[in-house]
Design brief:
Layout lengths: L1 H10 L46 E11 L4 E11 L6 E7 L25 H8 L9 E7 L7 E4 L2 E10 L4 E11 L12 E5 L4 E6 L5 E2 L2 E2 L3 E2 L15 E10 L3 E4 L2 E2 L2 H4 L2 H10 L7 E4 L1 H10 L4 E11 L4 E4 L3 E8 L4 E8 L6 H20 L7 E6 L4 E4 L2 E4 L10 H16 L16 H18 L12 H4 L21 H21 L1 H15 L6 H10 L6 H8 L7 E11 L12 H8 L13 E3 L18 H8 L3 E9 L7 E7 L4 E6 L10 E8 L3 E6 L14 E2 L1 H14 L1
Helix pairs in contact: 6-7, 6-8, 7-8, 8-10, 10-11, 11-12
């Protein structure tokens, strides 16, 4: 034990100890996450993959629905076949009744809209107190088994329980029927309304966005059991995969874009439209207009009172949505992937021209191609973008996307916002529509991963656009910690103003840093693709993502997940102290006393200057005492060490972790001859002391300035303490701000 202690004492001159002098409590930033993650089992492995006995439920739907345009009412009936693949028998079932969230008195955005002020707009008052009442929510007409016998139900807000007289055994299925109706709501009455109708007063027509529209099965899995948390708008959905056969009856002049493949085009399209539709299937270079502006304008004026039924089928999807209007123009382009040909489509009213005809389907194509490269080939037959007002919202194969020109024109910023929204919402086909995470529980698993790939798409296909970079999150990260929550927060428990930062931008920045600085693109991309392929058409949890990224890379990332996802710490690295040394050529015999004058020179090596103007401090490399070698017989060539250091510049730098978030360190050296060098130090430098570390660098050239995080890659919240001399780095960052 004595010898070990002596070795530690020897090394202590060049390495920081594990505990600071001021605070001897271990902070735990490099502790493993084991106790925070579910224990691996036969369902989910320790490597982050589905286990040998992984299971998930399935629900198939046959639905008949009709929109009554004069009353804006939707009626429907469905048969659900539920497959119990779990190990236990099920004596009751839970279904989501999302439309009930629109009922007055239900939990809504009123409490999230702030307080009374001296002056509020009428629309703000409608959001806050709902003085103008309107009908909303389901009327459940009947719930019966396949023989027509009524099944007992209990409705609790946005959830409905069906009690079964005979439990569904493991491996068995159960079919039942539901009839229902609800008034389709005006989207302008709600904040962040994801569905309903948008009214166009000029021509007195509606665009119907029909989503969250049928009673549908809650997810049941090996970790949560029933995911029957109430729907409060912000937290989205956890759903089971299945096959959908959906028949939709609408006015005969309506055009429908929907989840799935159209089964009866000859019954709902004109001969000319059908010819264009067939042509679009082999148009790989540009979109084909299937329904023209002229045709849409004619239908707007005539308004058919006849009806048509559109029939769709969608396989292996977790939801179904559609858009219906006589106002729609429709274009489509085929995109060939290595394993699949996808029809990329756009539906938009004339109010979207000309921007939507120029940019929408192109954006769908770009998203499909880039996302497929980073994950897996898009597996579905269609990918649809529908133009609407104000929102972006995703569903399998179809998304509703805001962004419209004014008087036929769009600013560059507005165009970027529109294209970014389309890329983002189409990208959601991957996360969570195929890699089916629980959005109500872990919003970042779909929004964060998806926004990360959105930034990759924009960087590769729209290089002139601004996409999320680490410095974008700095204002949020340096905010008030009293109200800030970690990324690992359920979606309904985050404040509205912080929602985008915490679930979209912060995970995107974290993953960007993980890819570019911590792991490197090659390791990251391979691990990320493996995660996507392991969990496509399955239900992953955060631990499955964390473990897969480590499993495929051999990089211990527990410190990273702990800091970025479980804490509200930020990156603030202070370049605290810089000392510049040059070696004395005079050798010193350690057995003899060093001259007093030289001792004085060495003792004064504490360089307190704020720049390099005082020159280097001398230091001496002494011969190694025999006692240091213990029982080793071989010896280091002390003179060879001195020869290697002859004329070199030795820089000792102290870094302080003021923000608490463990981070790699990126240093830019500027030398006297004008050349520069960037050096990256892994985050493990903080392993032994999470508060401050000291590192020694040997350089051939003489440095004139040193800057930490010179290109704002680490989301450092305070750039004023990142440099030596201080003035140099401030000008560097001022330049970066101007470039932005």
């Amino acid at each position: 034990m004595k010898k070990i202690i002596s070795i530690v004492m020897i090394l202590s001159g060049v390495a920081s100890v594990a505990f600071s002098q001021d605070d001897k409590k271990w902070k735990g930033k490099f502790e493993q996450l084991d106790y925070l993650l579910p224990t691996p089992n036969e369902f989910r492995t320790g490597g982050g993959a589905p286990g040998a006995k992984y299971w998930q439920q399935r629900a198939d739907y046959t639905i008949d629905a009709e929109i009554d345009e004069p009353t804006n009412k939707l009626t429907g009936k469905e048969t659900i076949t539920y497959y119990n693949n779990s190990p236990e028998a099920m004596s009751f079932l839970w279904l989501q009744l999302d439309q009930n969230v629109n009922k007055k008195g239900n939990e809504d955005f009123g409490s999230a809209m702030g307080n009374m002020r001296d002056t509020l707009t009428a629309l703000n008052m409608q959001y806050l107190t709902r003085p103008i009442e309107f009908e909303a929510g389901y009327t459940i007409v009947s719930v019966t088994d396949k023989l027509g016998k009524n099944l007992p139900i209990t409705i609790n807000n946005t959830m409905m329980r069906i009690d079964l007289s005979t439990p569904i055994k493991s491996g068995e299925s159960f079919s039942f029927n539901i009839s229902w109706s609800y008034p389709i709501t005006d989207r302008s009455m709600f904040v962040l309304s994801r569905e309903g109708y948008e009214h166009f007063p000029e021509d007195n027509n509606n665009v119907y966005l029909i989503a969250h529209w049928f009673p549908r099965m809650c997810q049941y899995d090996d970790i949560e059991g029933w995911q029957n948390k109430q729907f409060r708008r912000l937290g989205e959905f956890a759903l089971e995969f299945g096959t959908y056969k959906v028949n939709i009856t609408v006015p005969a002049d309506h055009l429908i874009g929907a989840t799935g493949w159209l089964q009866n085009p000859k019954e709902v399209l004109t001969t000319q439209q059908l010819e264009r539709f067939e042509k679009s299937k082999t148009s790989y270079d540009k979109p084909v207009v299937i329904v023209t502006e002229e045709e849409a304008r004619t239908k707007e004026k005539n308004k058919s009172t006849a009806k048509k039924t559109w029939r769709f089928q969608a396989d292996n999807v977790r939801d179904f949505a559609f858009a219906s209007s006589r106002k729609f123009i429709w274009d489509a382009q085929a995109v060939k992937l290595p394993t699949n040909t996808v029809m990329c489509m756009s539906f938009y009213p004339k109010e979207g021209l000309p921007t939507w005809s120029e940019a929408s389907t192109k954006a769908v194509k770009n998203a499909i191609e880039v996302y497929s490269n980073y994950t897996f080939d898009y597996p579905y037959p269609v990918a649809i973008s529908v133009n609407t007002s104000n929102i972006g919202m995703e569903f399998p194969m179809i998304s509703f996307n805001g962004g419209r020109p004014r008087n036929g024109k769009m600013s560059d910023n507005a165009l970027q916002g529109m294209v970014g929204t389309i890329v983002h919402e189409v990208g959601h086909n991957y996360f969570p529509m195929i890699v089916s995470s629980d959005e109500r529980q872990w919003m970042w698993m779909d929004e964060g991963l998806n926004t990360f790939l959105q930034t990759r798409t924009e960087a590769e296909r729209y290089p002139n656009f601004h996409h999320t970079v680490p410095k974008d999150i700095v204002p949020y990260m340096k905010g008030d910690k009293n109200t800030m929550r970690p990324i690992m927060t359920t979606s309904d428990n985050e404040q509205l103003f912080a929602f985008g930062n915490n679930f979209y931008q912060k995970p995107t920045v974290a993953l960007s840093i993980l890819r570019e600085t911590v792991m490197g693109p090659e390791l990251f991309d391979r691990a990320f693709k493996e995660y996507a392929n392991r969990w496509k058409y399955k239900h992953p949890r955060p631990a499955d993502f964390f473990r897969t990224m480590e499993d495929l890379s051999a990089v211990d990332l527990d410190w990273f997940w702990r800091g970025w996802f479980y804490s509200t710490d930020n990156v603030d690295v202070e370049l605290s102290d810089v000392k510049w040394y040059k070696m004395n050529s005079q050798s010193v015999d350690p057995e003899k006393k060093t001259p007093k004058t030289q001792q004085g020179d060495l003792a004064s090596a504490e360089n307190k200057s704020n720049d390099f103007s005082h020159g280097p401090k001398p230091f001496t490399v002494s011969n190694t005492p025999e006692a240091y070698y213990g029982q080793f017989l071989s010896r280091l060539d002390d003179n060879a060490v001195r020869q290697k250091l002859e004329g070199k510049n030795i820089y000792q730098i102290k870094f302080k972790n003021l923000g608490g978030l463990v981070t790699p360190i990126i240093i830019e050296w500027t030398y006297k001859d004008g050349s520069k060098e960037v050096e990256k130090i892994p985050a493990e430098i903080w392993r032994l002391n999470e508060n401050e570390v000291t590192k020694v660098f040997v350089k051939d050239k003489e440095a004139t300035s040193i800057v930490v995080d010179p290109n704002a890659e680490l989301a450092d919240v305070d750039i004023s303490n990142n440099s030596f001399p201080k003035k140099t780095a401030e000008s560097k960052f001022d330049q970066l701000k101007k470039e932005k």
